[in-house]
Amino acid sequence: MDVLVVGAGEMGTWFGRTLAAERDDVSVAVTDLDSDAADRAADALEGRSVPATTDERFDLACFAVPIPAVESAVESWADHADRALVDVTGVMEPALQAMAAAAPDRERVSFHPLFAPARAPGNVAVVADAPGPTTDGVRAALADAGNALFETSAADHDEAMETVQARAHAAVLAFGLAAEDVSEEFHTPVSEALFDLVGRVAHNEPRVYADIQETFRGAEDVAEAAGRLADADAEGFADLYRSVGDRDWTTGATEREDHTDSS
User: Fold this and answer.
1) b vs e for 22-36, b when ≥16 Cβ sit within 10 Å of the residue's Cβ?
2) Cis preceding linkage at 113, omega within 30
3) 133-177 pLDDT, tens digit each
4) Containing H/E element for 212?
5) Are 15 and 26 within 8 A, CB to CB?
6) What is the mean pLDDT of the chain?
7) How many other β-carbons are positioned within 10 Å of the β-carbon of residue 74?
8) Whether the Cβ atoms of residue 127 and residue 109 lie closer than 8 Å to each other
């Protein structure tokens, strides 16, 4: 299977590497507006780079571009794929709409790996808009690499990203902006975990996080919630605290414990 990866970043490289590692019949080509980046990604994948002016055709095109660029990338490259289009951009409704408009007669599936490539494998959200044998092969390769694929809808995925990405990132970065340096011995379990989260979030590509905020919107909600806490009197703060504690924050059956320490 001849695969074209549109976008030479970490996620596009991860996609091409995973497919090539799990299938003997895969050859990978990479294209990017930055031809040097395309060359580097192609070298890492033991594949080849192709220029934007190519007239080559491929079995499958994978769009691994920044969220704001997905529609223009699909419009530019969809006709180079004879069988299937997929994306790993992180936004599903716009990506699927663009792929359906550009290639109504081809297979179309949106994948969202819910992890940084360095932390692979992990959970991968899947919306199979127009599945078929080619995209089924991609799904099998991702699963064989140890990823846990689960099906969802584009609307449910994009709504979930408002919390698990946009609001989560905004909350962590807001803490990072507000926090001051403290000696290690002063840390509580909660503050230590928050400092670790800031370190994990704040040492990546800023543009990616900016694109997520612009697409899914989260900072306003976090700011509004923080404002409610800041403006509340003691009784109102306690009510807000209880409203949070009354929710079930577990993903399993573990009962919530009462915590009365200084954490």
Assistant:
1) bbeebbbbbbbeeee
2) no
3) 999 999 999 999 999 999 999 999 999 999 999 999 999 999 999
4) helix 206-216
5) no
6) 93
7) 28
8) yes
Contact 129, 110 (CB under 8 A): yes
Give Cα separations from 34 to 7, 8, 155 (angstroms).
9, 8, 32
CATH classification for the domain delimited by 2-152, as one of 3.40.50.450, 3.40.1190.20, 3.40.50.720, 3.40.50.150: 3.40.50.720
**What pLDDT shows up at residue 251?**
61
Cα dist. 206→87, 119, 138, 210, 248 in Å? 21, 18, 29, 6, 32
Strands 148-151 and 123-130: parallel
Looking only at the bridges linking them, the beta strands covering 2-6 and 27-31 are parallel
Q: Collect all residues with Cβ–Cβ distance below 8 Å to 57 and sequence separation of at least 6.
A: 80, 81, 82
54 secondary structure, DSSP code: -
Give the separation between CA 102 and CA 202, rounded to whole angstroms.
Answer: 36
Residue ranges of domains in the chain? 2-152, 156-245
Q: Is the pLDDT reported for residue 28 higher than 80?
A: yes
Average pLDDT score over residue span 92-106: 98
Q: What percent of the chain has pLDDT over 70?
A: 95
* Residue that has been written with the tokens 């290639």 in this structure: 103
Which two tokens mark 131?
A: 């599945």
Three-state SS at 179: coil
Q: For CA atoms 168, 171, 177, 183, give the dihedral sign.
A: negative
Continuous segment of H or E residues that includes residue 172: helix 168-178
Q: Name the nearest CA neighbour of 2 among 165, 23, 11.
A: 23
R_g over Cα of the chain: 21
Reported as half-sphere exposure (CB side, CA atoms, 13 A), residue 68 has a value of 8
pLDDT tens digits, residue range 239-260? 999 999 999 987 643 343 444 3
